[in-house]
Amino acid sequence: MELLERSRTIAKPGWSRWLVPPAALAIHLSIGQAYAWSVFKPPLEKTLHISGTGSALPFQLAIVMLGLSAAFGGTLVERKGPRWAMFVSLVAFCSGLLISSLGVALSQYWIVVLGYGFVGGIGLGIGYISPVSTLIKWFPDRPGMATGIAIMGFGGGALIASPWSSQMLTSFGVTTSGISKAFLIHGIAYAVFMALGVALIRVPRPDWRPAGWTPDANAPKKLVTTANVSARNAVKTPQFWLLWIVLCFNVTAGIGILEKAAPMIVDFFKNTSTPVATTAAVGFTALLSLANMLGRFVWSSLSDRVGRKNIYRFYLGAGALLYLLLLTAGNSSTQLFVIAAMAILSFYGGGFATIPAYLRDLFGTFQVGAIHGRLLTAWSVAGVLGPLIVNAIADAGKSAGHTGSSLYTTSFYIMIALLVIGFVANELIRPVSAKFHEPATDEQPAAENGSESAESTVKN
Q1: d(CA 233, CA 400)
Q2: Which of 205, 293, 365, 417 is most buried when burial is the number of CB atoms within 10 A of its CB?
Q3: For every one of its 460 residues, what pLDDT tens digit does the chain have, with 9 covering 90 and above?
């Protein structure tokens, strides 16, 4: 396994940093298949006779394991390097899909939960954080844009997986055999694609800087620090936990729609003059994935100009208003519902892509990958909370005889409340106290005064 060692991935002079985002995209586009889970929900419910809440379990467990594996593996990923992490992600994620294929073939749903949720979820977590700190180090001049490019792949994964999965289910049949074949093909195809990222990834030399770049003189006004905070100390700061709340509630508000996208839009317009067909609902899922993907690049790139705190004000405040719009007029127009939901998902995606840069602004680059991993436990909580709120309330409403948009009224009110709390938490964030900063090293002053190294010959 010598090829996976960090020392084997250090870029040589002349290496273009613009080859790093495609390597990250190869991983994120693959593990982003998780966002197409709603396509498998109705077939699994029908063939294995499970409820809407039950069919969400693999997805929920996968998100839980994503956060936990990112939190516990973050420091290891920093030490071992991105190639090792990407390889581990490939093995775990694709094994999870193959185990799920076996579980469906045997009509044993617990095997699907174990494979897709537990094993595959570990691949999600390690794969998700694998390129983040590397991208920030390659693009200190544009951290929001860089992480946005890669992380948009995770949001856009369903844009590929959703129609692809739907077509396979149509071709193979909505049976245990057909669903099993779909999972099997996913596992094999994604393994090949992820291997491209493993081979391509590189890390910069410790003293490398982009040619001609110097730190922003106005950085302190945007909460940007030139100091560094360790992962151990970061979790002791109020800033970390305020960001945890911001991420958790922003994710909860988006993932509640995303996980139940296809059945939700069908339910919402069931009792109206413009019902939505199941096939059209699959298209809605793809549109949400597109919004999720584009939001990760567009909003995170904008955050480089307006600052991270301001962009989160936008995500959380506008998100609450859009949920209110869905409550009051959501089922009056299919177009209105789709546009509002797409905007909410763009904020959801943007929040994910912006959070690594927000962490870098507050805690520096020293152990930003490990800090990011710990913060993703907020995603674990949100991955359970969002689908649980939406599915449990909808299931209870159906049991009580309710139909249509009324199935989601209570859950939408809860989402508004959570977004408001997240907005307040973001307002409370201030620069990190100097007592948490790492002592300056011999290299750090040089990094701060804008000096160039010999490695600036690497292509910009």
Answers
A1: 49
A2: 293
A3: 678 888 889 998 888 999 999 999 999 999 999 988 888 988 999 999 998 878 989 988 998 899 899 888 888 888 899 999 999 999 999 999 999 999 999 999 999 999 999 999 999 999 998 888 888 889 888 888 888 887 888 877 877 898 899 999 999 999 999 999 999 999 999 999 999 999 999 999 888 888 877 766 555 456 677 789 999 999 999 999 999 999 999 999 998 888 788 888 888 888 787 888 877 887 887 788 788 888 988 999 999 899 999 999 999 999 999 999 998 887 788 899 999 999 999 999 999 989 999 999 999 888 888 899 999 899 889 988 998 899 899 989 988 888 888 899 999 999 999 999 999 999 999 999 999 999 865 444 333 333 333 333 334 4
Contacts of 303 (CB under 8 A, 6+ apart): 144, 310, 311, 350, 354, 357, 358
CATH number at residue 173: 1.20.1250.20
The answer to whether residue 130 sits within a structural domain is yes
Q: What residue numbers bound the domain in which 301 lies?
A: 2-207+216-438
CA distances from 194 to 23, 52, 189, 203 (A): 9, 31, 9, 18
Structure tokens at 128: 């998700």
* DSSP states along 315-365: HHHHHHHHHHHHHHHGGG-HHHHHHHHHHHHHHHHHHHHHHHHHHHHHH-S
**How many distinct structural domains can be found in the chain?**
1
Distance (Å, whole) CA 116 – CA 135? 28
E strand intervals along 271-315: none
User: Would residue 460 count as lying in a domain?
Assistant: no
Neighbours of 444 (CB within 10 A): 16
**Burial of residue 352 (number of CB atoms within 10 Å: 0-12, 13-18, 19+):** buried
Q: DSSP 3-state assignment of 203?
A: strand
Cα distances from 8 to residues 303, 336, 400, in angstroms, run: 33, 51, 61
Residue 452 maps to a domain:
no
The pTM of this model reads 0.79
- Supply 426's token pair: 């973001």
Based on C-alpha coordinates, what's the Rg of the chain? Answer: 22
Query: Is 444 within the bounds of a domain?
Result: no
Q: Which backbone phi and psi does 141 adopt, to 5 degrees?
A: -80, -25
